[in-house]
Amino acid sequence: MLIIADPAAAAQITIQNSLEKHHNTREFVYPLLGEKNLVTLEGKEWKMWRGIFNPGFASGHLMSLVGSMVSDTVRFTGILSGYAAKEKVFELEEAVTRLTVDIIGNVVLDMSLEAQTSENELVKAFRDQLQWMPLPNDINLFRKYNPMKWFVYRANTRIMNRYLDKLLEQRFAHRQQEEKVNSKRNKPVIDLALDTYLKETGQSGGSALPWQFKRSAIDHFKTFLFAGHDTTSSTACFVVHLLSKHPEALEKVRQEHDEVYGSDTSKTAEAIANDPHSLNRLPYTLAVLKEVLRLFPPASTVREGDPNTPILFNGKEYPTDGFMLWPVAYGMHRQPDLWPNAEEFIPERFLVKEGDPLFPPKGAWRPFEYGPRNCVGQELAYIELKIFMVLTLRDFDIRAAYEEQDKIDGKDRSTHTTKGDRAYQVLVATAKPVLGYPSKVTKRKRQ
Ligand code: HEM
Fold this sequence. Notes:
Elements: E1 2-4, H1 7-16, H2 23-33, H3 43-53, H4 59-63, H5 66-86, E2 90-91, H6 92-109, H7 121-131, H8 141-145, H9 148-173, H10 175-181, H11 189-201, H12 211-227, H13 230-245, H14 247-261, H15 268-274, H16 283-295, E3 303-304, E4 311-313, E5 316-318, E6 324-327, H17 329-333, H18 378-392, E7 396-400, H19 402-409, E8 425-428, E9 430-433, E10 438-443
Parallel strand pairs: 1-6
Antiparallel strand pairs: 2-10, 3-6, 4-5, 7-10, 8-9
Protoporphyrin IX containing FE binds near residues 50, 223, 235 and 297.
């Protein structure tokens, strides 16, 4: 493995040449997402599908979905209130994951998966599959070598594919009629896929969809469901964590939200839904998000070395053939020669003008990666995280409860820290807060 911690070197394999994803990525994600997933597809097939789905994640389209994201987040705040009333330790990561699943369900499938309030069979199979995913550095030998996992993969895949297949067929059957009623509406991802099929075959709906098309579409839906919930939910946990450790920054965030939405928080949900673009008037909130993603990036890319693509670094050429190339965001984001006070939480880095010593160096901040294979969902992630922040931070105080969790489990984990912090990242498909971020929440009394 070649670990790349220099922005210009990283650009050579992601922007100047966008090298293929490393073959290990395929082995890792196939059981969960299938072979036609957008993360590991390559070449023309990837380009075609990426082009098809881009409009489904464009800012203008996402703004039209803010109302439903707000409703899902209001449901989440109701759940938080329940935890506050019970004064119970709960896993924040699990609760936010259910919220982000509901949101991505609406964006991709145009339906609520009701993950926050019920056990949907798709979500259940999906989450179970994640538990069985191999980890590159797995020390759990039971999980790594247990032959049962292949049966579990197959059973869960069958449930997920059947669910999505049915949905696709239903959507297709109702399509002609719907199109006439509302042909100019913004298209959710599921309709973008159907449009493509209809355009390519010249059909106008009606007859059954061929298996080949459904296989691709279903794998893409699973990819969006996976990529669209995990990373965002772990980022939300680290937003809460870093702000609880930096009360001065939390105060500034709350002030900004008061300024934009007024201090009566009972009216905020309606205000966002009526004016989704108000989310673009939260510069400090955005700076906090970027700083959280600097310190705790949940994902990164690994690329396949190539005989014709050496990396030029400090005037020397390094061959890449046979290497797994890892432009490691976490390392680059904390490098002291790139970032002044690299280990400190300073959202102002993302507010200062170019020329200021705090100004981020070019290409050194890469939580969503750069180049053609960058994250298609970054705009969606920002929107949902801002809504999460605006609707929770002024009404609740949330803090980590690792000591309480230790007592509940009867375990002393006080030495389990990284850089002195109990809330470090562990790799569970993506990088997540350890133990699901056990938390305690209280309702705020405002003067
Ligand atoms: C804070 C949130 C997020 C972070 C930090 C993040 C990060 C990333 C990174 C680093 C990649 C590149 C992976 C690689 O090259 O192997 C990526 C790709 C991708 N992300 Fe995200 N992501 C986030 C949220 C989302 C959301 C909400 C979606 C919703 C659909 C999404 C969908 C995808 C997809 C489909 C790809 C593959 C794109 C392609 O290869 O064309 N991500 N993301």
